[in-house]
Write a structure and sequence with these properties.
Distance between the termini: 43 Å
Protein name: Helix-turn-helix domain-containing protein
Pfam families: DUF5753, HTH_31
Radius of gyration: 22 Å
Largest sheet: 6 strands, mixed
InterPro entries: Cro/C1-type_HTH, DUF5753, Lambda_DNA-bd_dom_sf
Organism: Saccharothrix hoggarensis
Number of helices: 12
Low-confidence stretches: 1-6, 87-92
Strand content: 5-15%
Structural class: alpha/beta
CATH architecture of the largest domain: 2-Layer Sandwich
Helix content: 40-55%
Strand order of the largest sheet: 3-2-1-4-5-6
């Protein structure tokens, strides 16, 4: 199945970024490009922000205007062809929100993720039963089949942690998310055990922000900082909220969220102390709150 219309792939985003940098290098404004080529300035904006894939003749006109050397033209043409490729989609994914499928595409090709979560265990670290309970609770209007589609998708996503070149995940989570009995005591006991097992992997770091830490920059809501292996791909910020999925990629936003994550790492317990806290929550202090691990 082809990628949904309007859902950017990493290659389309890379093409957009290179076209934006080429225009900046000439000192031309979008209005100047429109005057010289007839390409509407609004259309160019959408191309440069990966909202639209350009037509080939548009790409050719831009390369000519920007004076792109022949060898670089060939690289851009190859990237243009790749940008039309299928994204990370399966038949049962067709009804997933467009922003979510875009996030999954980026996640699959990312080198590293820095994920702050205040209310839930991050999706890449969830057990199937915990994921099902979370999804059923949050998406209370969805049918059982729709819930199962989301669960299956979430489990599939976790393959990025065990592939040949696994994703590096640095998760900072709130202590509150470990106390909330999502799915009941048995589900939480398994979830906490899963977190402890996951933390042993060399590509996964888990830190917990304890209740005693007080106010901090993560309190407005969860976010993800995504790093990519290609230096031409800038970091991407993902924010999931009641208002929908938001992607941010301006230098100012990237700097702000990087700094916020660094602050959260500083106020969180160390990975070893976090593991001890997780084990302690599972076993007490209320005499086996979730049963013993």
């Amino acid at each position: 199945m082809a990628t949904k219309k309007g859902t950017p792939t990493i290659r389309l985003r890379r093409l957009a970024g290179q076209l934006r940098r080429l225009r900046d290098g000439t000192g031309l404004r979008r209005e100047d490009v429109e005057e010289r080529t007839g390409i509407n300035a609004t259309t160019l904006y959408r191309i440069e922000t990966a909202r639209n894939r350009p037509q080939y003749r548009t790409l050719a006109a831009l390369m000519k205007l920007y004076g792109v050397p022949s060898d670089e033209q060939e690289r851009l043409k190859a990237l243009y062809k790749q940008s039309a490729g299928e994204g990370w989609m399966q038949p049962w994914h067709e009804d997933l929100p467009e922003g979510y499928t875009a996030y999954i595409n980026f996640e699959k090709e990312a080198y590293g993720l820095r994920h702050y979560s205040g209310l839930f265990v991050p999706g890449l670290l969830q057990t199937e039963d915990y994921a099902r309970a979370v999804i059923r609770g949050v998406l209370h209007d969805e049918t059982d089949d729709q819930v199962e589609d989301f669960v299956r998708t979430r489990m599939e996503r976790q393959a990025v942690l065990t592939k040949k070149k696994p994703l590096k995940l640095w998760a900072v989570i709130e202590e509150a998310s470990l106390h909330r009995q999502v799915g009941g005591a048995d589900v939480m006991r398994s979830q906490l055990r899963h977190l402890l097992d996951a933390a042993k992997a060399p590509n996964i770091t888990i830190q917990v922000i304890p209740f005693s830490s007080g106010a901090h920059p993560g309190m407005p809501g969860q976010f993800v900082v995504m790093d990519f292996p290609d230096p031409l791909d800038t970091d991407l910020i993902y924010v999931d909220s009641q208002a929908g999925e938001i992607f941010l990629e301006s230098d100012a936003d990237i700097k702000r969220f990087r700094a916020a994550f660094d602050h959260l790492v500083a106020v969180a317990k160390s990975p070893d102390d976090s593991a001890a806290l997780i084990a302690g929550i599972a076993a007490g202090p209320e005499k086996g709150r979730f049963g013993r691990l």
